[in-house]
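Revision sheet: structure tokens.
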Amino acid sequence: MKASIDLRDGVNFEGTTESGHTIGVDGPPEYGGRNLGARPMELVLLGMGACTAFDVVHILRKSRHQVTGCRVELEADRAEDVPKVFTHIRVNFFISGDKLTDKAVKRAVELSAEKYCSASIMLGKTAKISHSYQIISPNP
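Predicted:
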């Protein structure tokens, strides 16, 4: 996997992925940023959320569950001192679909957390990660 980061202005950067996608990254105003992009650690948190969401949806669909929606809300605490690593990450899934069972969703979340989500497993080396989920009933 490859990626690049190019300085644009001040502390505003443009990141480019190997797959050709770009994303803006910027620092906070107190470090010369102008709020033109996500903060680097926000991207780390988003990356973990996307990784685990992908896993959970894939696991559920592979076991023939009809997933119609998946939202993952993440909240992270950081260390007070440099390096300000994540110390605790709370991951809350909101999964919707037809006939989803508690057992299936719980299993998918656990498999992602313990076996498949590279980002979660990597971040789990420095942070406590807790998971919760809610099954959202489809509209009648």
